[in-house]
Backbone:
């Protein structure tokens, strides 16, 4: 059965690998100069030195703690990240493509062409048939998604940490192992859709809408994966949270000493000597996910999508065994 | 005589519509059975139930003594060619034979290659580029390669031109004659199958209407010609299947239960095609073996 699954889907897998190679051909040459600038500007070293301080909250020039603001400026002067971030937005759809072209036709094409009647009347169980196909195609999708995730993570990392941070929406979705989870989910959704809507095009349409819907829903739930932390710090201070930390700040507001909001959706810093229109009691409040939760959040997000993928495959196997003829 | 296929009160429903209802039949082993009926009569449903693609909603079906649903072991003994002979169009015939070998415990790969060569199928071209007749031969070869005890064919000649139909059926008969394989093949036209089959199952409107060995059916049906008479009552006539009248004379196709000796009527034998057409024209008539007769043929 493995031979048959490989023979049937090798062309898709080959196209997937070619796509990955094309992606690498674009990302590697464009990523290398960025990484060079990342190293030369001193930003890479600076961030490395900063990251081990787990409870790091405020940067204080007086104590000499690394701030990384200056190397970030040097890096940004050499590398304009806006194009990279725009291309990154396009790359976010690649897992969906794998689901559309690997997952949706897996059962739907057989049923649409009637070939399921050929293969299901051979001496193997439908369960083994669908599991082997899902196994072969899923393994291919896993390999391609892993390559994609490694490439894009490497390519975008310097741009992200120097700009928006890697924990923000869309940045988070392009890095780490989350894209692998998305890809497996998209494939499983496609397979399942093909067992319900038994035409390739319908299965693809359902996969498209289902994928976007579930991705949005999980993204909206993401800030609450772990209870966010709250931090208060004075407006008039020599110290303030370091924006280079790649924290995910969910909400920020500035209040006066009476508790009235003076800067909704923003924060205010000013140094003691220059602060004329603020009083000592004014403070900022951040609701945020600390930078060291990046990987736990990646695990939760990926785990969620992998669990959904497993559930969808189980449903698809059930439908193949019981509901299709 | 053993039984190749047996159904009791078999029914299959799609939504509220019964595609097959209250179907009881028995096909003895070794027969070449024709499954005939108009489009939508339930032929495909019956074959899909027999090969385990469908599960019954009512009653039971047993194939070679076993329940076919989710029974891959039984599928070693059953060859099936689905309607429109579906094949993977990008596979070559050679690859399809390889697939047969990989997916079945028993698939005679050398036989399949030899047979394909014998009927002139190129082994190394994608089957999507072959003609309909050639694809049908590939599908038949895959089914035969399993050396099945029961071969089920769903409208195998529907897409073929008359010459290809004859060649296909000849090849089929040549292949099953020596092995004693039971064959059940469906068509909406009896004419396709009349020359090869010796057993008839006529389905109409989801029900079995006529069932039996062709010889028995021919023997118990007669065409009677006599003076014009509406609703005639005759000794020896069990059922009038069809009657037609001119000004002076009546022609009846009847099912008999004993010889007809009425001197008013001349008695002719019937050909199978007329018999089938007569039953198709009158859905309320039926020629089914009663429980007693089922016992006799067992």
Residues:
């Amino acid at each position: 059965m493995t031979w048959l699954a490989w023979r049937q889907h090798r062309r898709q897998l080959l196209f997937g690998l070619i796509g990955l190679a094309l992606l690498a051909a674009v990302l590697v040459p464009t990523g290398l100069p960025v990484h060079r600038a990342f190293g030369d500007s001193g930003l890479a070293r600076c961030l490395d030195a900063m990251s081990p301080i787990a409870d790091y909250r405020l940067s204080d020039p007086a104590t000499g703690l690394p701030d990384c603001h200056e190397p970030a400026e040097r890096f940004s002067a050499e590398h304009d990240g806006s194009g990279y971030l725009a291309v990154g937005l396009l790359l976010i759809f690649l897992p969906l493509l794998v689901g559309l072209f690997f997952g949706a036709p897996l059962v739907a094409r057989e049923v649409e062409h009637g070939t399921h009647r050929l293969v299901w009347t051979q001496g193997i169980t439908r369960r083994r048939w669908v599991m082997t196909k899902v196994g072969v195609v899923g393994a291919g999708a896993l390999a391609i998604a892993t390559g994609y995730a490694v490439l894009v993570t490497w390519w975008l990392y310097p741009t992200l940490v120097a700009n928006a941070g890697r924990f923000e929406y869309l940045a988070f979705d392009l890095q780490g192992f989350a894209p692998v989870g998305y890809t497996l989910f998209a494939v499983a959704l496609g397979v399942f859709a093909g067992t319900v809507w038994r035409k390739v095009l319908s299965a693809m349409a359902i996969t498209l809408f289902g994928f976007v819907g579930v991705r949005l829903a999980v993204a909206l739930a993401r800030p609450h994966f772990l209870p966010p932390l709250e931090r208060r710090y004075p407006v008039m201070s020599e110290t303030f949270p370091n924006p280079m930390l790649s924290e995910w700040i969910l909400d920020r507001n500035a209040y006066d000493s009476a508790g009235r909001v003076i800067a909704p959706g923003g924060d205010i810093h000013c140094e003691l000597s220059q602060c004329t229109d603020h009083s000592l009691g004014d403070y900022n409040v951040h609701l945020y996910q600390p930078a060291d939760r990046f990987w736990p959040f990646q695990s939760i997000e990926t785990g969620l999508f992998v669990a959904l993928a497993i559930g969808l495959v189980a449903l698809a196997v059930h439908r193949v065994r019981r509901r299709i003829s | 005589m053993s039984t190749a296929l047996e159904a009791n009160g078999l029914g299959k429903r799609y939504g509220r519509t019964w595609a097959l209802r209250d179907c009881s039949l028995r096909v003895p082993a070794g027969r070449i059975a024709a499954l005939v009926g108009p489009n939508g009569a339930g032929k495909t449903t019956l074959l899909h139930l027999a090969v385990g693609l469908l599960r019954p909603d009512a009653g039971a079906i047993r194939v070679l003594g076993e329940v076919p649903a989710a029974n891959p072991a039984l599928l070693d003994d059953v060859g099936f060619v689905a309607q429109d002979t579906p094949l993977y169009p990008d596979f070559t015939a050679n690859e399809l034979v390889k697939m047969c070998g990989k997916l079945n415990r028993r698939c005679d790969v050398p036989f399949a290659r030899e047979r394909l060569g014998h009927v002139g199928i190129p082994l190394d071209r994608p089957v999507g580029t072959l003609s309909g007749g050639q694809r049908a031969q590939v599908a038949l070869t895959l089914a035969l390669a399993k050396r099945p005890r029961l071969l089920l064919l769903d409208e195998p000649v529907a897409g073929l031109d008359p010459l290809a139909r004859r060649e296909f059926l000849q090849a089929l008969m040549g292949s099953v004659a020596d092995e004693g394989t039971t064959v059940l093949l469906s068509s909406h036209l009896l004419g396709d199958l009349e020359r090869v089959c010796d057993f008839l199952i006529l389905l109409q409107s989801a029900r079995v209407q006529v069932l039996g060995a062709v010889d028995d059916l021919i023997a118990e049906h007669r065409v009677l010609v006599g003076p014009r008479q509406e609703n005639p009552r005759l000794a020896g006539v069990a059922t009038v299947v069809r009657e037609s009248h001119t000004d002076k004379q009546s022609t009846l196709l009847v099912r008999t239960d004993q010889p007809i000796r009425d001197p008013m009527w001349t008695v002719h034998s019937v050909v199978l095609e007329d018999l089938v057409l007569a039953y198709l024209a009158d859905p309320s008539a039926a020629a089914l073996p009663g429980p007693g007769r089922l016992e006799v043929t067992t």
About this structure: DSSP finds ten helices and 13 strands in chain B. The longest strand of chain B covers residues 3-14.
